[in-house]
Amino acid sequence: MSHSNISLPHNKSQVKGEAYTLLLSIIEAHFPIFAFFTVVALGALHAYFYSLIVAAVLLVSWFLIRGKLSELKRTEAYKNLALTSLFITSLFSLIFLALQTTSPSHVAIILFLQVLFSYLFLGRKPGETLGKGHLVGVVLMTLGAVVILFPNKLTLNLGDGLALLAAIIAPFANLYQKRARSFVSSETILMIRTLIALPFIYLLALYFEPAPSWEMIQAQWLWIVLTGGLVFFISKMLWVEALHLLPITKVNALYAFSPLLTLLLAYWYLDDAPTWTQILGGLPIVIGSYFITQKQLPINR
Question: Contact at 8 Å (CB) between 59 and 194?
Answer without folding.
Answer: yes
